Amino acid sequence: xxxxxxxxxxxxxxxxxxxxxxxxxxxxxxxxxxxxxxxxxxxxxxxxxxxxxxxxxxxxxxxxxxxxxxxxxxxxxxxxxxxxxxxxxxxxxxxxxxxxxxxxxxxxxxxx
Amino acid sequence: xxxxxxxxxxxxxxxxxxxxxxxxxxxxxxxxxxxxxxxxxxxxxxxxxxxxxxxxxxxxxxxxxxxxxxxxxxxxxxxxxxxxxxxxxxxxxxxxxxxxxxxxxxxxxxxxxxxx
Lengths: 112, 116
What we know:
- The structure holds two protein chains of two kinds.
- By secondary structure, chain A is an all-beta fold.
- Chain A is about 0% helix and about 50% strand.
């Protein structure tokens, strides 16, 4: 199974500052079709997960441009610029290049 | 507007069965792979199973293989998860999810509690 290692486990950020979350996979996520099936999700308290980024670096419709994804192969990063109160929650990376599909263990973002 | 509404959760004894349903609307159901993702209390997200557009291909995580069956009825725009031989470790909120290049749409989840 592809192991998705997310760091840090938790993050405390002041409003207006930047947050960065790393996700490393135990195998390359480059699919034979040329796509890299790595996505990022935010689960706000008491809510279902919501998609932020797909194919490693594409923002989903309606997602603030304060969120950006980068990376390739096995190393990926989610950056949140100018953190706002509504950004708090748990962030997950997810790969669906290889079966079984696997999530990272999550990064809890708290606002200082 | 895309909507996914799960139902069928509840309290069930170990070894018993339960069937979850997900009613979809707002998109052409037969055009999308569908999946179930679960989340144990206070834990992270875990993919459970996926099914292809016409139901011809199904995929499972090892821990549910042989016990869970994912299926769909495109005429009813509905997704199902038949869960047999339930174990305490299957206790979780089960989400129905779909999307073109990622899990873009999620239901509100249905809670399954396996306990005697």
